[in-house]
C-alpha cells in the first residue's frame, strides 16, 4: 500500500522551480551557491525533495 504524498501548492512549486534553475545554472561556477541549495533541499520534507529532484533532472537534461 502506498501513501499518497501531499499536493504541492503553486507557491511551493514556484519556489522549488527557482531553486532548481539556480542550482542548474550554478553547477559549474558557484560551489558555495550549490552547497547552500543542497543544504536547503536536504532539510526539506520528502515530498518536496522528490519534486526538487524531478525538476532538477528535467532542467539538467535541458542544460
UniProtKB/TrEMBL annotation:
Record's superkingdom?
Bacteria
**What protein am I looking at?**
Uncharacterized protein
Species the sequence originates in: Photobacterium kishitanii
UniProt lineage: Bacteria, Pseudomonadati, Pseudomonadota, Gammaproteobacteria, Vibrionales
